[in-house]
Design a protein that fits this description.
Blueprint lengths: L1 E7 L27 E7 L8 E6 L3 E6 L4 E5 L16 E2 L8 E6 L3 E6 L4 E5 L16 E6 L8 E6 L3 E6 L4 E6 L14 E7 L8 E6 L3 E6 L4 E5 L14 E6 L8 E6 L3 E6 L4 E5 L14 E6 L8 E6 L3 E6 L4 E6 L20 E3 L42 H7 L34 E4 L4 E4 L16 E9 L2 E8 L23 H8 L9 H11 L2 H5 L21 H8 L6 H18 L12 H4 L4 H4 L3 H17 L2 H13 L2 H20 L7 H24 L13 H5 L2 H10 L20 H30 L10 E5 L4 H10 L10 E5 L9 H14 L7 E4 L4 E4 L7 H16 L10 H7 L7 H5 L3 H12 L3 H5 L6 E6 L2 E6 L14 H13 L4 H15 L9 H9 L6 H6 L2 E2 L8 H12 L2 H12 L15 E5 L8 E3 L4 E5 L4 H12 L9
Parallel strand pairs: 31-32, 37-38, 38-40
Antiparallel strand pairs: 1-2, 1-30, 3-4, 4-5, 5-6, 7-8, 8-9, 9-10, 11-12, 12-13, 13-14, 15-16, 16-17, 17-18, 19-20, 20-21, 21-22, 23-24, 24-25, 25-26, 27-28, 29-30, 33-34, 35-36, 39-40
Helix pairs in contact: 3-6, 6-9, 9-11, 9-12, 10-12, 11-12, 17-18, 18-24, 19-25
Length: 1153
């Protein structure tokens, strides 16, 4: 391994001075007589020592060897070297001999190192507390001292700025100390200018940090998914946040969120970032062109370095005012910016800068694919220099004498601060163009910082003369202050070339991975957990940051986290966590750590989207998926409470993430909190525990409510019925909850838990019972109101009927119904309904009204009325926008349907589900909604969306206009203004489909539906109605067609001499089983008045069969009001069959029996 250096060396920071005997090995005069090393020079001190890392301060350098020993050189005026040896030669920091050091970092004049065991030591300038030792005095610390406050943490990274530092622990915590003049510690609320002790940055709690970096007075962190937060000084825009105001708190750099940033480096007042694809962005001060943009204008927003585009940069490094970039594929190092240096001789300060990245030449192998680079061309004549930093422009360079001379130089003159373009060059009068003139280039080397010619060029071996396999290859670059280092290894060296886009395990925060799961899985089941296992569990499962960095999607899919991309591989997490099922000791301790340390620390307002990932991840843990009863009231409820306490913005993100999950992952959340709630209900608690019990149940319900709301907004990823908790009907007094809920004014919160506030957990049966209860209460109130009014009118003999009595003529049922309803007051519909058919003896105990609803709806919904359009393919109907009927007829239909529901009667209403969605104020405009009405046309629309070629769409010749046919007339209707002239294309086809569906289901029938809904909601509308899901409401209105004939037979009751094994009953059931489905449905109509099954199932029909005397010549008789069947005592099966089949074919009309 070889190490090369260049840049400022006035304080010995390059470590080149090994004594006067070393002159013979130099290329020309002793370089130490100069203030700079302008071309890469080997640091021979480390020729036989394996350097792994270098850190550069302003005037000193620190070298870390592979064996963990540390050497330093350079200025020691503040004790930053940690030893008393001469600074021009690297000297070992012997005070660290008892430590194995793994990382080193430098501030301006102080040094910080991290040991293998995660402890941190520091020394040097402590005037601003930058050593973090917390001592009273701020004198220089000349020997390494331990930062005791961090000794309880395992630190994996440390970065140093000018006079401040930031440390990242394995547990994902961030600590800062030192100078806080510009808010560079990011503590916001702390106004102290200096902090001598490490303080945690709590505002970034939960953010999974991957990198930390510090500049002169600004700081940055980069998350595992490329999110960047910066804070501190911003006078040059070095925070990249589109302004120049300082920030005392971490501020999100939004513009780079989608760029997959993997690494960040900071100079004094500028910043450079490296992306996953090898792109480089820079921002901040450009006074010395350190941004590489050929401009001296500061950049307050990140800007990509154009000259490096097309190349995959793998390493970047920043000095005070310069930047380095390494391209691994070509083996080339590029530099741009300035080395600012004030020589000890008192000569004036020189400032020279590079307008664009220039290749740094050195004795290392480079790829042959790129022959010409920016730095391979030397202009013959320099134009007059522009002004830079207020200095006067120098004179023109004289013309280079020959092309051959230029060719001879082009491989040797470029260093990291070369400026070969004269317009960017400025210099003092003392360094005039005449002083730089020469008659021959063959015996001189160009010092590009002074544009002087120096001896020694002829000794340089041209690139390409050696076998590339024998030459060194670049392993790593380092920079800081005004100097640089480069590590190179021979081809056969096994050490990997550093890639800043990758991070070693030692530098990464801890995560849940296969290795940890292996360790936990191997834990003995019947013994206590070892100290190592407990330590691993505590470190990770107490840290939100560690969990948020775990099980991320591969191939960079987790970058750019957003509402659409949570970045977590939940399937991988489930697979690994499943290995811990049954490991009760591990799960018990894991639950304890989560409940005691993690969950109570979760902030309601996380710093970033990435800090929310654990809310998805932990639901895959066995702690949640298979919780023991004692964990119901602790970790599961605690976690639910934290989830419910998240602020609105964070809650919306989680809801959006849920909407992207597969049903299996959502179902796990649902199942966990359903089980948790039932576990709470089933446990016996004392009176003192009941408040906690109610609180726990309410938290579970709130989590389920969030999940249900998301589910409803996303076309029901999970079926609505999975939210049912059927045990509630048996274990909880739902009626008492309902009555309390009714008495409470709408919008007020209940101090206790009321399940009516969470209707999604109530099944259809429970809701139907509540609707019946509500209807009975309203009927009772209506009757009591009539009784009060009758008491007031008793002397006038004008008694008000407590029932809504409709006298109906069968022969003109629609007009008769309209007339009867019009003569009653609007509130009379709340009375119990009684129907009387003109000329018939039947008394309405429920059966007459069943037939009334069946007949009137069959008539009014028929095609001859023209109020509704019929769709034969699905046997459904929809409003006819071209109906000639008056709007009041649609109101009448709504009232009739409302009366049927209000009076608990199942009716035949062949509307699609879209109607019930609209009645419940849910959107009904999707293609799926339309498919239930017209599946054939919906299929055509789907085909349009599936077409892959744009030309195929155009060839359909569709426009945003449709033809509507009504009573033989065809009319063209535009779906949007000018739609007839707007063709459907690949780009607007989704808009066309949406517009068409919305036209059919909504806009074209807006008036007809409005009158229907007014009539319907006048009867049945209210708070109870809104408890229903659209499908539940539909099933309740029209009943069910899921026939369980075995259940039907099992639930029949017998009276008199009949019993299940009676000979007549055995014959009856034999005949019934032999019937076709249509005949069985007719039997239901004959017996109950409808062929639909109540939503609660056949068990609720309560059929009764009783014997009647009179002989076998009589027919069976049905009492539809009571679901009662009078069945003669037949002794012959054939006779029974004939009589029964004849009876069920004649189901209309009522008489007294």
């Amino acid at each position: 391994m070889r190490m090369y250096c260049w840049g400022a060396t006035c304080h010995g920071q390059l470590g080149l001075d090994k004594g006067p005997t070393d002159d013979a090995e130099t290329d020309g005069p002793n370089d130490q007589s100069f203030d700079l090393i302008s071309t890469p020079r080997e640091v021979r001190f480390f020729r036989r020592r394996h350097v792994s890392e270098v850190a550069c301060g302003l005037q000193h350098s620190v070298f870390l060897l592979r064996d963990g020993t540390v050497y330093t050189c350079g200025s020691n005026d503040k004790g930053q070297l940690g030893h008393d040896m001469p600074g021009r030669t690297p000297g070992q920091v012997t005070a660290l001999e008892t430590y194995v050091i793994r990382r080193v970092a430098c501030g301006d004049a102080f040094t910080v190192v991290t040991a293998e065991n995660g402890t941190v030591l520091s020394w040097g300038d402590d005037s601003c507390g930058q050593c973090g030792l917390g001592t009273e005095g701020r004198e220089c610390k000349r020997r390494p001292r331990l930062l005791k406050q961090l000794s309880v943490h395992h630190v994996v990274q440390v970065a140093c700025g000018g006079a401040h530092s930031i440390a990242l622990t394995r547990g994902g915590k961030l600590f800062v100390w030192g100078d806080n003049t510009y808010g560079q510690l990011g503590l916001g609320h702390i106004l102290q200018k200096c902090l001598e002790r490490p303080n945690e940055i709590t505002s970034l709690h939960g953010l999974p940090v991957m990198r930390v970096a510090c500049g002169g007075a600004h700081s940055f962190v980069v998350s595992v998914s490329g999110t960047i937060f910066g804070w501190g000084r911003n006078h040059c825009g070095q925070l990249g946040i589109n302004d120049t105001e300082d920030r005392s708190q971490p501020t999100l750099l939004r513009s780079l969120r989608s760029q997959k940033v993997r690494y960040i480096a900071c100079g004094m007042n500028h910043t450079a970032v490296l992306t996953a694809d090898g792109g480089v962005f820079t921002f901040g001060s450009a006074a010395d062109r350190q941004l590489g943009h050929s401009s001296v204008s500061n950049e307050i927003n990140p800007r990509k370095v154009f000259e490096l585009m097309g190349s995959e940069v793998t390493q970047i490094a920043c000095g005070s005012c310069h930047t380095l970039a390494f391209i691994r594929t070509s083996g080339r190092v590029f530099s741009f910016g300035l080395l600012t240096h004030e020589p000890p001789t008192g000569r004036p300060v020189y400032r020279r800068s590079l307008s664009a990245p220039i290749k740094v030449n050195g004795p290392w192998a480079e790829g042959e694919s790129i022959r010409d680079t920016i730095g391979d061309k030397v202009p013959k004549r320099h134009e007059k220099a522009e002004e830079s930093s207020g200095e006067p422009a120098g004179e023109e360079f004289k013309k280079v004498q020959s092309e051959n001379d230029v060719a001879e130089l082009d491989k040797s003159i470029f260093d990291m601060n070369s400026d070969m373009l004269a317009p960017e060059t400025t210099y003092r009068d003392e360094d005039s163009a005449e002083d730089m003139e020469t008659d021959s280039f063959t015996n001189y080397e160009v010092d590009t910082n002074f544009h002087r010619l120096r001896r020694g060029l002829s000794k340089r071996t041209p690139v390409g003369t050696k076998d590339e396999t024998e030459r060194m290859r670049v392993r790593a670059i380092f920079s800081g202050g005004n100097h640089c280092f480069l590590l190179a290894t021979c081809a056969k060296d096994s050490s990997e070339v550093v890639d800043h886009r990758e991070i070693s395990v030692d530098d990464h925060i801890a995560t849940v991975d296969a290795i940890l799961i292996d360790t936990l899985e191997a834990a003995p089941p019947d013994e206590g957990l070892s100290e190592a296992v407990m330590s691993s569990v505590e470190e990770i499962f107490s840290s939100a940051a560690c969990l948020n960095a775990s099980f991320l999607k591969g191939d960079g899919a987790h970058f750019g986290s957003s509402r659409q991309n949570h970045g977590v591989d939940l399937d991988a997490a489930r697979e690994q966590f499943s290995r811990l099922a049954g490991k009760e000791a591990v799960l018990r301790y894991m639950a304890e750590i989560l409940g005691v340390y993690l969950i109570p620390s979760l902030p309601p307002s996380p710093p970033d989207i990435e800090a929310l990932r654990l809310y998805l991840l932990l639901m895959e843990s066995p702690v949640f998926t298979d919780p023991s009863p004692e964990r119901y009231g602790t970790v599961v409820v605690q976690f639910g409470e934290a989830l419910c306490n998240i602020t609105s913005a964070g809650s919306k993100v989680i809801s959006q993430w849920w909407s992207t999950l597969q049903p299996r992952h959502l179902n796990r959340i649902l199942t966990t909190y359903k089980q948790c709630m039932m576990g709470q209900l089933s446990r016996k608690r004392s009176a003192a525990d009941r408040p906690m019990l109610r609180r726990n149940i309410k938290i579970c319900l709130e989590v389920l409510s969030k999940l249900c709301k998301m589910n409803n907004e996303n076309n029901e990823i999970l079926p609505y019925y999975l939210f049912y908790i059927k045990e509630l009907t048996d274990n909880v007094g739902i009626r008492d909850h309902f009555l309390e809920w009714l008495q409470r004014r709408s919008g007020l919160e209940c101090a206790d838990v009321n399940f009516c506030d969470y209707p999604f957990v109530l099944d259809a049966n429970a809701k139907t019972q509540l609707l019946k209860e509500d209807a009975m209460l309203q009927m009772q109130n209506a009757i009591e109101d009539v009784q009060r009014r009758n008491l007031q009118r008793i002397l006038f003999f004008d008694i008000i009927n407590p029932y809504l009595v409709l006298t109906i003529n069968r022969n003109n049922i629609v007009q008769s119904t309209l007339t009867e309803l019009s003569r009653h007051g609007s509130m009379d519909v709340k009375k119990p309904l009684k129907v009387v058919f003109v000329g018939e003896e039947g008394v309405d105990a429920g059966g007459v009204q069943k037939e009334f609803f069946m007949l009137v709806l069959r008539e009014i919904l028929s095609a001859k009325f023209g109020m509704f359009r019929h769709y034969p393919g699905t046997e459904t109907i929809w409003f006819n926008s071209k109906s000639f009927e008056d709007s009041e007829m649609f109101r009448l239909v709504g009232i009739i349907v409302g009366l049927a529901i209000y009076n608990l009667t199942i009716i035949s209403l062949p509307f699609p589900l879209a109607l019930y969605k609209k009645l419940l104020n849910r959107p009904a405009k999707s293609l799926e909604d339309f498919k239930q009405l017209d599946p054939e046309f919906a299929s055509n629309l789907q085909h349009l969306l599936d077409i892959e070629e744009p030309q195929d769409v155009l060839e359909l010749y569709l426009t945003f206009a449709v033809t509507v046919e009504s009573f033989g007339e065809v009319e063209t209707v535009e779906l949007k203004p000018g739609g007839a002239d707007l063709s459907v294309t690949m780009e607007n086809r989704q808009d066309y489909v949406d517009s068409y569906v919305d036209f059919v289901l909504n806009t074209s029938v807006e008036q007809q539906y409005r009158f229907f809904s007014e009539g319907f909601l006048h009867v049945i509308g209210g708070r109870v109605f809104n408890l229903f899901h659209p499908q539940e409401l539909m099933d309740m209105v029209i009943g069910d067609e899921h026939y369980d004939w075995d259940e039907f037979e099992k639930n029949v009751s017998y009276k008199g001499e009949y019993y299940r094994q009676h000979p007549t009953m055995r014959m009856f059931w034999d005949v019934f089983r032999e019937m076709s489905l249509q005949q069985k449905k007719k039997f239901l109509v004959f017996l109950t008045g409808t062929d639909r099954v109540p939503i609660q199932g056949m068990k609720t029909l309560h059929i009764i069969i009783q014997p009647v005397k009179g002989g076998e010549d009589f027919f069976p008789v049905a009492h539809t009001c009571f679901n009662l069947l009078d069945l003669p005592v037949y002794t012959d099966k054939a006779r029974l069959r004939d009589k029964l089949l004849m009876a069920i074919e004649n189901t209309e009309g009522f008489t007294l029996v």
